[in-house]
Amino acid sequence: MRNRRFTAFRRIHNFIPAAGIVLLLAALLFTVFFYRNQDSRGSDSDAPSSGETSQDTAGNTDSDASSGSLFHAQDLKGYEGFLPISLHTDKAQSAIPDIRLYFDGTGRCFFFLPACVPTEQYVFAYDETVYGIEIDGLPIHSSDAPGSYRQGQEYPIMIKGAGEESGSFDAIPMTITFMQSRNLPSVFISTASGTTGYINVSKENREPGEFLCLLADGTRDSSGTLRSVKCHGNSSFYEADKKTYQILFDSGCDVLSMGTSGKYILQANAFDASYLRNEILYTYCQQAGIPYTVDTAYVDLYFNGEYAGNYLICERVEQGTSRVDIPDGYLIEKIIADRVTAEDHAFQVTGMNYFIIKDSELATAEECADVADYMNHVEDLIRSCSQAESDSKEKYEELCSYIDVESFADMYLVAAISNDIDSNIASTYYYLCSDAGSRKLYAGPVWDYDNAFGRHERGYEIALSAYPSGFCEELYDIPYFRDLVRDRLNTVYYPLMEEYLTVDIPAMHSYIQPSLSMELPRWQAKGYHSAAVADHDDAVSYLYDYIRKRLEHVYDRINHPEGYHHIRFINSSAGADYRDSELWIPDGDKISDDIMTQLSDRFRCEGFRFENGKSYSNTRPVFSDMTLYSY
Questions:
Q1: Backbone φ, ψ for residue 551 (5° rounding)
Q2: For residue 610, how many other CB atoms are within 10 A of its CB?
Q3: What is the pLDDT of residues 555-597, one digit of tens each?
Q4: Cis peptide before 445 (omega within 30 of 0)
Q5: Which of 25-34, 62-71, 331-340 shows the highest mean pLDDT?
Q6: For residues 360 and 38, is the Cβ–Cβ distance under 8 A?
Q7: At what angle do helices 536-559 and 479-488 cross, to 10 degrees?
Q8: Where is 440: in which H helix or E strand?
Q9: Which end of the chain has fewer surrounding CB within 10 Å, N or C?
């Protein structure tokens, strides 16, 4: 990991023969075809193709031609997926797989081409004993060049069985569009099975493969053998078809100058219709100087020649010389209780539920117990310091000998500005390491922000924290820490985000736009995005507006605390994962019905009451700080 400035933006048809013997032979052939495909587990197992079709590096095909009669033009009606109709390149230095034709289920098909090979260097590659193709009324043969077709323009296409005569069937109206990315590196992964069907079923499934990364100009950046490819993530795995992946090299590989490592994450950004949130936060934190912030790069990802979409390849948050370089320390993650496994070195901190030591093979049970004691002692010190009735300077100085307060101030501001729903719940990291002979606890590094900036309904309300409190929020009760937070906001975080809004984010969006022109027809109709936005363009506009409003809210309430009141909503019935929510409201304002409804839904409660048991009503203005308890 290294701090760097973001720059470059960055389906079978009924076969009716004339004679019974032909029907018997056809049935036999169908049986063989069916069972062969059932065993393939591939993404084409439901495809209206000829069965097992493979292509060698020269683009030649090898298929069971006798099964070609099983394909008919009508088989494509409503079909979504890929067919072994490809574009092939002989570009020697690339050695990329043939790019397969994608059908979206509505009569449109696409070739999604990487930036690394010019269009004129491709030729069609498909089995002419299986398919017959016409584009714009003209027949297309294998080895024909597609250079005359304009990118982004729809052309009429007819795909039929090789034995079908034009006029002998009802053609399905279809169009084909040739699209090509620009700017982005291309990542090609070939899995051992030739599909992603197996690994997409379970996060426990994995298989080996080969990796190739080419820059936009065709230069080879990196390559290597993959020990495993597997799905990564939690809610995104179960709720989205577009998966996030973890790749593990046989030996370390330096991908896109991120530093040699064995593991990388390919983030799908499936929940984020803007495709910007993760990259914004990662680069923002790098420029703010947060140590060990992950390096990232947008790429176009292909699995076995099938376009998987626009991805963000990232370093994995892990210990290592080119990652979190703490040889005598421990990387610690806040984790949701039901995600703790028997292999984890897990422990609890009072009021905050579970933490685990990442890379658990690096720590013994005794060391884990020691880390748990240390972090619980830090929690005790924070509470003691924030509850001190007299001057707490001495207590604060003692606390500063145990934690790096600057890193906690930074993480407080990152959570406050991003309003990410996972902060202090999951994907929240700390590290404990030696510093000049004494140990200190640091906050960070940052990770996983696809639910930041109002993407999730819990974050819709600008003034309401979408996340529960943690160490940083408890520290904010201490005046000395508040002063530090205010200074970091005014000198670093506020001016830097203003620059992001006017320069970096527009450049970032422009940089990935050609790739998104392929990503959107591939994935946008699948949804998964926030109910607050209609499509990608709306999502980008919403993102800009949300960041501006949230930034101004955080700036105002930190710099003018006398004009705000702090309302803490305690979740009385929940465990420590979702223990509370915080609201900062201007003096004399009422808490809106929308906020009260959202909190009641979030905490699954009927309402809120004061500590004395009296019910709270939001019909009156707020003139003081309050703590309210759910019931």
A1: -60, -45
A2: 12
A3: 999 999 999 999 999 999 866 568 999 999 999 999 999 999 9
A4: yes
A5: 331-340
A6: no
A7: 130
A8: strand 438-443
A9: C
Calculate Rg over the CA atoms of the chain.
28
Q: Which residue has the tokens 């370093």?
A: 315
Chain centre to alpha carbon of residue 315: 13
Task: Please say whether the beta carbons of 108 and 521 come within 8 A.
Answer: yes
- Rounded Cα distance between 97 and 87, Å, is 9
Structure tokens at 610: 């004061």
User: Mind giving me the DSSP string for 55-92?
Assistant: E-TTS-EEE-GGGGGG--GGGGTT-EEEEEEEEEE--T
Q: Tokens 């933006």 label which residue?
A: 9
Concatenated DSSP letters of 307-359: EEEEEEEEE-S-BSTTSB--TTSEEEEE--GGG--TTS-EEEETTTEEEEESS
Number of C-beta neighbours around residue 187 at 10 A: 26
How high is the pLDDT of residue 167? 64
d(CA 116, CA 182): 8
The three-point CA angle 374-377-383 to 5° equals: 145
DSSP code, position 489:
I
- DSSP of 496-518: HHHHIIIIIHHHHHHHHHHHHHH
The two tokens of residue 28 are: 């036999």
Has residue 1 got a pLDDT over 70?
no
Of the CA atoms within 13 Å of residue 95, those in its CB half-sphere come to 11
Q: Which helix (H) or strand (E) holds 483?
A: helix 479-488
411 pLDDT more than 90? yes
The first and second tokens of residue 115, run together, are: 């930036």
Q: ∠ CA(239), CA(244), CA(249), 5° rounding?
A: 150
Q: What is the pLDDT of residue 46?
A: 54
Please name the amino acid found at residue 26.
Answer: A
**Which band of pLDDT confidence, cut at 50, 70 and 90, is reported for residue 36?**
very low
List pLDDT tens digits, range 507-545. 999 999 999 999 999 998 776 667 788 899 999 999 999
pLDDT attached to residue 31: 39
pTM of the predicted protein model: 0.88
For 225-254, the DSSP string reads EEEEEEEE-SHHHHH-SS-EEEEEEEEEE-
